[in-house]
Amino acid sequence: MKKWWQWPFLIFLIVASVFILSENRTEYRQCHNTVYSTLYNVTYKSNKDLSTGIHATLLEVDSTLSMFNKGSAMWFINNGLDYTTTPMFRYIFNLSKTIWQSTDGAFDPTVAPLVNAWGFGYKNGDLPTDAQVDSILHFVGFQHITVDDNENVVKDDPRVMLDYSAIAKGYSVDMVAAYLEDNGVADYMVEVGGEIKVKGMNPKGGKWRIGVSIPKSDTVGFQHILSVTDIAMATSGNYRNYFEKDGKRYGHTIDPKTGFPAMNSLLSATVLANTCAGADATATALMVMGVDKAMEYCSAHTDIQAMLIYAKSDNTMDTICTKGFRALALE
Fold first, then answer.
1. CA dist., res. 140 & res. 109, Å (int)
2. Distance CA 322, CA 144 (A)
């Protein structure tokens, strides 16, 4: 017969065994949904269903950074209404300013009026004339907007507008990743509209495999497959987002300095970085720069790796990439 004092010890052993078995049964979960007209997919290892929190995190980003969400911070600012900034807004504002400076203005969220003028925003119309573009350029430039000591947005021209579409998607990936980590998740892949962040191991116990799409609107497939972990990836390209008029193709990437769609041979730019927001914004900047300047930028900023896909004079495609990027490619 067991002594009475032995029972608590046995109960402890049973509870501990159940806990250990429960931990060993931790499985990878998947979460698929749509937010701001964008599909997202999250794979993560946890014994908890975190899908509700994941969606709430994405909605929080939308409520601050979306141009199209009435009542968002961006809507207030772009419509000239008073707005006291939040920590999220200030983080993106300061990060955008840093990347704007480092890319010599190739990434510039104040390009919004030009995006609208060219018909890629929420206001569509005829193509702008040279005179109209020149007029808009007077109030395009990140130097025209600041956040004061009272954390309020200040413009030196009321027509200044912000468009964070080239960084918000990547930032939403970072926010979901942070939410997962706050909930003890060490292995995950977060993908929002093609922008990705991975950490730890995949369900097979290896590194995550992510693909870089072939930059053709009529082709589905991957130019390269990467084997990566603990990294973020973003791709920018004009091959699916463009329009044609009078036999000429106009891509959606606007050069903030000229006011016109960037006209160079680049079809897509894929960037690997520590944050997806940084990768997202930098990929857009590289598209504006063109092949040569983009590779010069990557050589000077070793904290990122990149691959550029461009059109040759004979209309065939070719790629150029940094050594670090090439080392991660499986094929």
1. 9
2. 34
- Secondary structure (3-state) at 109: helix
List Cβ neighbours of 22 (8 Å cut-off, separation of 6 or more).
47
Map residue 14 onto helix, strand or coil: helix
Report, as an integer, the average pLDDT of 254-263.
Answer: 93
Q: For residue range 19-74, list pLDDT tens digits in order.
A: 333 444 579 999 999 987 899 999 999 999 999 999 999 999 999 999 888 888 99
Contact assessment for residue 132 and residue 191, using Cβ atoms and an 8 Å cutoff: no
Contact 186, 200 (CB under 8 A): yes
Tokens for 126, please give them. Answer: 């005829």
pLDDT at 110: 97
Calpha distance 331→326 (Å, rounded): 9
Which pLDDT value is given to residue 69? 86
Do strands 242-245 and 248-251 pair parallel, antiparallel, or not at all (unpaired)?
Answer: antiparallel
Sign of torsion over alpha carbons 58, 288, 325, 93: negative
Only one residue has tokens 């998607």, namely 169
Tell me how crowded residue 8 is: count the other CB atoms within 10 A of its CB.
Answer: 9
Triad 89, 179, 38: Cα angle to 5°: 70
Tokens of 304: 């990122």
Paired with 244 in beta bridges are 249
| Location of structure tokens 């159940």 | 18
Output the six-digit token pair for 125. Answer: 């119309």
Q: DSSP class of residue 152?
A: B
Predicted local confidence at residue 35, as pLDDT: 87
Q: What local confidence, expressed as pLDDT, does residue 37 receive?
A: 83
- At residue 284, the pLDDT reads 97
Is the pTM value of this prediction over 0.85?
yes
Please name which of 192, 172, 155, 144 lies closest in space to residue 88, comparing C-alpha atoms. Answer: 172
Residue 212 pLDDT class (50, 70, 90 cuts)? confident
Question: To the nearest whole percent, how much of the chain has pLDDT over 90?
Answer: 68
Task: Give the Cα separation of 34 and 108 in Å (integer).
Answer: 27
